Amino acid sequence: MIDTALLLSMTMIFLARVTDVSLGTFRILQLVRGHRIAATMIGFFEIMIYMAVLSHILGGGRTLKTMELLAYCTGYAFGNYVGAFMEDKFMKGYTMLEAMAPCSDETLKVVDDLRDRGFGTTMIRGEGKNGPRYIIKIICNRKDIPEITRMIKHLAFVTVFDVKSCLGGYFRMKRK
């Protein structure tokens, strides 16, 4: 027969582990989407749960002091932020922005402005719910996303996709 204290302990460990693994999965998804602050906060609570359970299991009569637990959790959470920052700064990656815009002179002007700023831009004519649309495709460096979206977001519905690799084509060169 399992005693009540052991059953309660096992249940707590199981539920805590489900919670911290779920938070970990959600944290990774937030990092992938570029939500560093959310990932940092989630990471703090994820590792707090993990360490509390680990301390309970392996503690041998000693549990972590509150300040030790907070230091460990804060380090883990900040590590998520720093890792996302490093990925942003050091990983060269391409992104495809796809904008659905009305077939208008304003859209053509925005496309000309994008091209004038050195962005390779492909336009395809399509049909939307309310008539003809331009589908504007731009493959660029991740760091260019804010500049491009500032130029077109008032005009179009914009989606952003990660590009695993690409060959050929036209890419904006660094300005000197």
From TrEMBL:
UniProt keyword annotations, A-Z: Cell membrane, Membrane, Transmembrane, Transmembrane helix
PANTHER family tied to this protein: UPF0316 PROTEIN YEBE
Record Pfam families: DUF2179, DUF5698
Domain DUF5698: 25-83
Superkingdom, natural source: Bacteria
Organism of provenance: Dethiosulfovibrio peptidovorans DSM 11002
InterPro entries, A to Z: DUF2179, DUF5698, UPF0316
Keyword Transmembrane helix: yes
Protein name: Uncharacterized protein
GO cellular component assignments: plasma membrane
Residues of the DUF2179 domain: 119-168
Membrane topology summary: Multi-pass membrane protein
